[in-house]
Amino acid sequence: MKEIFIGILASLFFAVTFILNRSMELEGGSWLWSSSLRYFFMVPFLIAIVAIRGKNGFRILSNEMKESPVAWVGWSFIGFVLFYAPLTFAAAYGPGWLVSGTWQFTIVAGLLLAPLFLSTIDGKKVRAKIPLISLSISGIILIGIFMIQIPQAQTVSTQSLLLGTIPVIIAAFAYPLGNRKMMALCGGRVDPFQRVLGMTIASLPIWVLLAVYAFFTVGLPSASQLYQSLLVAVSSGVIATVLFFIATDRVRHDQGKLAAVEATQSIQVLFVVMGEMMLLNAPLPKPLALAGLAVIIIGLLIHSYHTVLVNRKRLQLKNENG
Fold first, then answer.
1. If we measure between CA atoms, which residue out of 183, 7, 6 comes closest to residue 79?
2. 304, 260 contact by CB (below 8 A)
3. What range does the domain containing 186 cover?
4. Distance (Å, whole) CA 317 – CA 322
5. pLDDT digits (tens, 9 = 90+) for 135-160
6. Number of DSSP helices (H) and strands (E) in the chain, helices first
7. Tens-place pLDDT, residues 44-100
8. Contact between 95 and 89 (Cβ < 8 Å)
9. How many domains are there within the chain?
10. Which pTM value belongs to this model?
């Protein structure tokens, strides 16, 4: 339950991404700057956090990255670049509710990725299976998401619908894949703060290339975009990402629990709807969308309850076996 609460808190800070990215697009800011600036701003904050925590954090991280440089660059590209660049691109073509709502597909995507991972049981490598119960519960949340999308989808063009959803579906698979592969690669040898810093540094060359391209095509970012990108970097890039990584690190050996933590991200939709109403003067969602929000919350509560039951059964078996 503690991990689920951390996940919900992370989703609150993640919601800032969708609201401010849409705000920047409405003001004429380029998605190229919105994506690259976030990671540029993240670096000094993460360096400061790792330095304050001490414990030879930089040396440990450096050794890990030197040991598997190709893996760090590759999975960081998937987990950060293929995650965030498509999200900011989608914000240029669809409203925040469409992007954040479609992003919740990551709940199901994370479960479907389970067979790509191996675990050691009794000295043997065993391929993880898709947790069907967790998948069924996530399906409930997905139904709620579709209920939110239906009334809104009728108000946007086909082009906006496709360009506002397909990139997000790509991101929905990339983020959990990159996150889980990096957890497996690190094996708990670096903490979430070090891992986020390492992945940010490993992905910097791509962000630099995007920034250079943006400079020659759209010019420099406005002061407003710089400020809002800084807010996104602190809220979503540092606080939310680290909180989410802490929660997933704690349950990384259990696909069911991991799915429950990832499912907490569905609550972002609530925060985004409220945020857009307050900050961007978005209208109140229609009755069907409000019902969808209720379904999402119910699905999240079922996920939490299922996790509690599984933990109790495992504890009982452990006590019975001595």
1. 183
2. yes
3. 2-320
4. 9
5. 888 788 788 878 877 876 777 777 77
6. 16, 2
7. 999 998 898 877 889 999 999 999 999 999 999 999 999 999 989 988 887 777 777
8. no
9. 1
10. 0.80
